């Protein structure tokens, strides 16, 4: 059954983004705006950096505006010169990543002009960008989104978010299914998944939180993780990736979207988020925290597993 | 006189990551007090449990460990004030991750052993060794390391068909 999802607000959102972008560029409030523009494939979008008020009309927002543009603000993209404020179009999940980066002192709020998007959901990576948004074609992350309306932005288009049909959280269901298996069955499942990995590191390159100048997985003295795309190194890579993002991941699911081998990567990140919520009552959100759950402690933390 | 030596079919390899200030000193105390404990354990000394990266545990399993012990100072006794508090959270999270990937957590033990607890060191090491001995060798990571198969394997009907047509 394909229940349609109302995305009629996106045309109003697009118009509002264009007007606002035109205004702030013309007024010199920002030097550039990172947003979405139509791409060549029918219905698709691509990131664009607009620096000229006349070009603001290129900015759009559609169900195919999947990218997390926060990536373009991180150190990983530091070749983009920073002069004055930068405007950026953000969905709720993207904003969580920006908030996380502010907590990690990678970004300053004052350097940014946030254009928040009231979001009804975006398309899954497996469907054509011109497909209509339905309960089946929506991205998995959007089925369990709690951040449709970004808060504390400099500008949010004044539109009414349509009520969403109740969707079953696709990750939650899958995590529960895996948790119910025996360790040996889970090992077999992940072994098969990890075996597919070709070590292209697209998942790392797209993640706003993978901004290390030298990744542990690229080091060879000592080499902690095998670099070849073979089962041992792949498994180590995925465990290390999940661990390094635990307590930091914003849940934008970009890692999973870009994986050319369709590995359900984000399950690991979401499982960790779930555990950290249970253990330390921490969740990625819109509030800037200097310390994440794994960079702080209390003297009462659970230690039932320690002898 | 040495007590009669027991022989076993399987001698597990246990890697112990310990902090130098408490557990290493505790293990030293056990030694200087001439307490007996299984020789299966290989001790690696670190400045602090806070320095023990989860990837070390992974590496240990990949290189053939059947069990891993991580041990340091009791909460409040850390030489660097909070290293063990941070480690406690990190390893709590790491256990959950390993469990989700399908590693049997019985092979991984954490403990606090102070410099005065030679007896506790003996107990922890003996317990883990016997537990792992009963479980048999850890094969999962070793098998992965042996496998040559990679993502180019022709293992789906579609790929097989395409391959046969070349
Ligand atoms: S994007 Fe997919 S194939 Fe590429 S390194 Fe990440 S998991 Fe492996
Ligand atoms: S790990 Fe994946 S979901 Fe989490 S922040 Fe990075 S790209 Fe987004």
Structural class based on helices, strands and sheet pairing of chain B: alpha/beta
Mean pLDDT of chain A: 92
Oligomerization state: heterodimer
What is the count of β-strands of chain B?
4
Number of helices of chain B: 6
Count interface residues per chain for the largest interface.
Answer: A-B, 53 and 44 residues
N→C terminal distance of chain A: 52 Å
CATH topology (level 3) name of chain B: Rossmann fold
Model description:
The complex is a heterodimer of chains A (307) and B (166). Chain A is an alpha/beta fold and 307 residues long. Chain A has two domains: 136 residues, no CATH class; 126 residues, no CATH class. In chain A, 32% of the residues lie in helices and 8% in strands. In chain A, α4 packs across α9 and α5 crosses α7. Chain A starts with 8 loop residues before the first helix and ends in a 27-residue tail after the last helix. Chain B has one domain: 3-Layer(aba) Sandwich (Rossmann fold). The mean pLDDT of chain B is 91. Chain B has a four-stranded parallel beta sheet with strand order 2-1-3-4, with helices on both faces. Chain B has six helices and four strands. In chain B, α1 crosses α4. The relative contact order of chain B is 0.19. Chain B is flat and about 70 Å long. The chains are: A alpha/beta (307), B alpha/beta (166). Chains A and B meet through α5, α7 and α9 of A and α2, α3, β4 and α5 of B. Bound molecules: iron/sulfur cluster (SF4) (2 copies).
Summary tags:
heterodimer, A: 307 residues, alpha/beta, 2 domains, five-stranded mixed sheet, 9 helices, globular, B: 166 residues, Rossmann fold, four-stranded parallel sheet, 4 strands, 43% helix, 14% strand, flat, binds iron/sulfur cluster
């Amino acid at each position: 059954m394909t229940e349609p999802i109302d995305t009629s607000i996106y045309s109003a959102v697009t118009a509002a983004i264009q007007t606002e972008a035109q205004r702030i560029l013309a007024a010199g409030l920002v030097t550039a705006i990172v947003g979405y523009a139509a791409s060549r494939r029918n219905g698709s979008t691509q990131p664009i950096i607009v620096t000229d008020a006349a070009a603001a009309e290129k900015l759009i927002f559609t169900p195919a505006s999947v990218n997390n543009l926060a990536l373009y603000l991180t150190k990983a993209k530091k070749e983009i010169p920073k002069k004055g404020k930068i405007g950026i179009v953000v969905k709720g999940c993207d904003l969580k990543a920006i908030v996380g980066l502010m907590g990690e002192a990678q970004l300053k709020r004052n350097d940014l002009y946030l254009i928040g998007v009231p979001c009804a959901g975006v398309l899954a990576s497996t469907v054509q960008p011109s497909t209509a948004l339905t309960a089946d074609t929506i991205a998995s992350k959007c089925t369990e989104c709690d951040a449709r309306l970004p808060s504390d932005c400099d500008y949010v288009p004044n539109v009414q978010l349509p009520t969403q049909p109740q969707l079953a959280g696709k990750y939650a269901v899958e995590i529960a299914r895996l948790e119910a298996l025996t360790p040996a069955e889970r090992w077999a499942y992940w072994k098969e998944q990890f075996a597919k990995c070709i070590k292209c590191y697209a998942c790392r390159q797209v993640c706003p939180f993978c901004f290390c100048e030298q990744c542990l997985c690229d080091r060879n003295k000592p080499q902690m993780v095998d670099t070849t795309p073979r089962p041992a190194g792949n498994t180590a890579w995925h465990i290390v990736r999940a661990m390094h993002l635990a307590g930091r991941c914003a849940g934008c699911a970009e890692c999973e979207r870009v994986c050319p081998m369709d590995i359900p990567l984000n399950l690991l990140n979401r499982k960790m988020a779930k555990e950290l919520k249970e253990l330390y009552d921490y969740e990625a959100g819109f509030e800037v925290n200097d310390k994440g759950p794994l960079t702080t402690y209390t003297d009462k933390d659970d230690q039932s597993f320690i002898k | 006189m040495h007590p009669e030596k027991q022989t076993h079919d399987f001698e597990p390899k246990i890697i112990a990551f310990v902090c130098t200030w408490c557990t290493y000193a505790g293990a030293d105390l056990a030694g200087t007090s001439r307490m007996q404990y299984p020789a299966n354990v290989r001790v690696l000394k670190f400045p602090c449990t806070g320095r023990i990266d989860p990837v070390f545990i992974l590496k240990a399993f990949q290189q053939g460990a059947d069990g891993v012990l991580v041990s340091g100072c009791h909460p409040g006794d850390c030489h660097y004030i909070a290293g063990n508090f941070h480690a406690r959270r990190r390893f709590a999270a790491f256990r959950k991750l390993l469990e989700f990937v399908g590693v049997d957590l019985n092979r991984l033990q954490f403990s606090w052993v102070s410099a005065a607890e030679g007896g506790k060191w003996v107990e922890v090491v003996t317990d883990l060794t016997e537990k792992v001995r009963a479980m048999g060798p850890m094969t999962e990571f070793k098998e992965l390391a042996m496998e040559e198969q990679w993502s180019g394997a022709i293992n789906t009907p579609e790929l097989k068909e395409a391959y046969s047509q070349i």
